[in-house]
Amino acid sequence: MQKNIVGKNFIFCRCLSLNKMVTAAEPKSELSKTVEEKKKDAKGEKKEEMSEEDKKLEEDLNLLVQRLSEPDSSLYRAALETLRTLIRASTTSMTSVPKPLKFMRPHYAKMKQIYEKIPSGEVKQLCADIISVLAMTSDERTDTINYRILGTNEPIGNWGHEYVRHLAMELSEEWKKIIETPENDKRRLDLLNLTRLIVAHHVKHNAEVEACDVLIEIERLDILKEYVQEVDHQRVCLYLMSCAPLTPDPDNMILIRTAMEIYLASDPLLRKQMAILLGRHQIFLEYDSSDADYNDLTEMNSNAHLYEYFHSLARELDIMDAKTPDQIYKTHLEHSRPFGNSSAPDSSRMNLAAALVNGFVNCGFGVDKMMTETDDASRWFYKNKDYGMLTAAASQGLVWRWDVDSGLSQCDRFLYVNDDFIKAGTLLAIGIISSGIQDPCDPALALLEDHIHSDRFIMRIGSVLGLGLAYANSKRDTVVKNEERGVIFELKKVLADTRPSATAEVKGLTGLSLGLILVGTGDHTAAMEMLQTLMERSEAELADPNMRFLALGIALIFLGTQDKSEVFVETLRSLPEPFGPMMATLLDVCAYAGTGNVLKIQKLLHMCSEHYETAEDQKKKTKPKREQTPPANPVPSGTNAAAAAAATAALGMEPKPAEPKKTGADAPKVDLSSQQAVAVLGIGLIAMGEEVGSQMALRMFGHLIRYGEPVIRRAVPLALALLSVSNPQLNILETLSKFSHDADADTAHNAIFAMGLVGAGTNNARLVAMLRQLASYHHKDQVSLMLVRIAQGLTHMGKGTMTLNPWHSDRQLLSPSAVASLLTICFAFLDANNSILNNRQHYLMYTLVLAMQPRMLVTLVEDELKPGNLKQVGVSVRVGQAVDVVAQAGKPKTITGFQTHTTPVLLAHGERAELANDEYLSMTPYLEGLVILKKNPDYTPHVVTTKK
């Protein structure tokens, strides 16, 4: 230890002596100066570095302050006006304090004393203005506002933009203090007046973002509508809509409503544009018949002419000719195996796949080569058996999608055949055709209600699911509140039916239909009746896969309602395990669908980290024991027991005595792995609405695939599909392609179907090649090959003109019925062997129709010959990749890499359209779907002159 100290001292002394030698040898340079010397030099040279102009300015300011300190009040006005002129005339960089403010800072306290002795009047107010500006350099947080209120109330921008920003910063802090003391009304009024001045200044100087920020901070966005002009309303609304996803409830709804009111104030034609958007969401309103625009609004809201606009797009693209499944499969390009056992071409599963593919590919065109172009279409139905005939007959609903008049007349001939399966499929086809269309005659209800209570269960299946699809997300009073002849009223009676035809399958589909119709409404009455049906079932009855769809219906009712679902989440958790926890998790994720809620995703990931032993694992570890009779009504353990008691009491049921709880090795281990599958699906469902969340979810799924349980791996492909519906990203396609070859059959099946969802309606060439290779790989497996064919049909859906993506209007709006559709089919695939792939419930594939929408842009203008009516017009538009322009200055380009087309045009995922010239003005900032235009009164056509 002593040697080390001696050694260190020696080194230190040696360095010190060397330093002295160098110092003595040469003069000290700037680099060799110590920090203390530099600081001394800086302090000493500070006065010397001042220019003559700065010295003169400092002397003048000191003289003016001295004059204000003198008793002669006649000098005050001249001195203060000179001070004001010097401060306003100062110019400096953005990173330094102006020279007059820097030199006046030592006199700040003295200026406040001077203000107190000046008598009331204009001179005193002028002094307050100057102190308000000087306060920007002081430590007093509210002096800038206080002396501004006491000042001359001159235009706020006269002191510069930095002064306005400083006022806004202090205003938000002061407002929070005022909120806590509501009795100070005068102070609140003064701050509101100052807020109006700040907002007016920001809007006038193209700083709308700062104006919005100020009003959001003080929660007074209503003031914004007074100052927004027609020219800049789109920038303001775009910023408000971009802030909404980052704002908690209920503030986000205030932002959205403010944007809506600003849009509505700009033009009355927007009522018709909003009627079109509501029709896109399948929300049909009851308009006042005394309204002058009643007929026009009803027609725009009903989607009655949607098929005509779609056909005009198809004719423009020259794709009206029907296609057959063989033209989609292109089997001649698949790798042939001359010595292998090829699958039978007319097998039941291949015929079923052909029916679905034919419907998907020719969806909405009103023509195909299997039913509409043949004399006896039913002959094609008979290639299938039982439920296969139902699915084949229902495919005609896809062909006649949206065309109610022609479609129902075509389906009518099949309602009188002798086969119940074909009749049931035709009833389902009627629901598919009517889905998303409002007809004043309600033909779907008239044709389907007679079979809701039929003695033949197969007819009830077709009519119940058909009603659910026909009236999905319908908010009309005639559907929801009619107690005598309403869809909800009729379906509720099916839940209480005890006849043999009211099978578990019928009741499960009834619950699903109620969920589709009431999606996102949070209707507690309907949800409680469905919950009571579940609570009356025994544990063995709840194990029926159809009961899961009844619980799914409850979850869909609370889609997007967030915390309004908490009571039902806990009530469902009280049901016997594993059914109760799985359904509670499903309801919870539905309530937060598309919100990107990070806390919920963390909770779901925690569920996925648990390990549950399956029945096979328990058999391996435990020895056979004497059989014991299970309890009649087991009560869940822990906190669920209290929830169960509360739920039974709420329903007026007597709780059954609880069985003694087993502990230790004798305690039965419940397999809750099904809850994990729902949790994985929920991660995709919640994260699908936010770009950053989607990217993070992709990384999480990579970990779940590597380290998760088998049930988790099976659910990951479906969750990936939810993140990227109709958007075939390369990394997701590669991942799904890898798992489509997985050794686990369920994982491979889900991956194949997920590939169809990811590429739905895109005609993606890479995906088409992948599916063709998969068809060769799975040529011996009938189930996998059927799913490959269905995925091929989805990829070519509408011959590449449609999408399943629930987000539209530049990803600003989410369609509840489309989300419900995608969730239903993915939830069914979590247990595909008991639903889609069990040769019975493949008709559930038709729930996808609620998400099918043409990805087109059609422009409409008012007909000059028939005022009030809208007619289609072709205008030039630029179509390119969307660019984020939120809060950017000026008018930046919103697209890049664009091409110019004439409407109607197709829009791919991530593309945005804008008008190519100023001849028309759009009623919506997002050119998607049906867009109403109006003539620009300020447009001057460009005249090209040629020299002779």
Automatic annotation (TrEMBL):
Transmembrane: present as a keyword of the record? Answer: no
Q: Which GO terms describe its biological process?
A: proteasome-mediated ubiquitin-dependent protein catabolic process; regulation of protein catabolic process
**Gene3D superfamilies attached here?**
Leucine-rich Repeat Variant
- Under the GO molecular function aspect, what terms does this record hold? enzyme regulator activity
Outline the extent of the 26S proteasome non-ATPase regulatory subunit RPN1 C-terminal domain: 886-939
UniProt entry keywords in alphabetical sequence: Proteasome, Repeat
Kindly state one GO CC term assigned in the UniProt record.
Answer: proteasome regulatory particle, base subcomplex
- Annotated segments matching region Disordered: 27-56, 615-640
The UniProt record lists the keyword Repeat? yes
Q: Where is the RPN1 N-terminal domain?
A: 61-265, 266-334
**Pfam families attached here?**
PC_rep, RPN1_C, RPN1_RPN2_N
Q: What function is annotated for this protein?
A: Binds to the intracellular domain of tumor necrosis factor type 1 receptor. The binding domain of TRAP1 and TRAP2 resides outside the death domain of TNFR1. Component of the 26S proteasome, a multiprotein complex involved in the ATP-dependent degradation of ubiquitinated proteins. This complex plays a key role in the maintenance of protein homeostasis by removing misfolded or damaged proteins, which could impair cellular functions, and by removing proteins whose functions are no longer required. Therefore, the proteasome participates in numerous cellular processes, including cell cycle progression, apoptosis, or DNA damage repair.
The annotated subunit structure for this chain is: Component of the 19S proteasome regulatory particle complex. The 26S proteasome consists of a 20S core particle (CP) and two 19S regulatory subunits (RP). The regulatory particle is made of a lid composed of 9 subunits, a base containing 6 ATPases and few additional components including PSMD2. Interacts with RPGRIP1L. Interacts with CRY1 in a KDM8-dependent manner.
Similarity comment: family membership: Belongs to the proteasome subunit S2 family.
Identification of the protein by name? 26S proteasome non-ATPase regulatory subunit 2
Q: Which organism is it from?
A: Caenorhabditis auriculariae
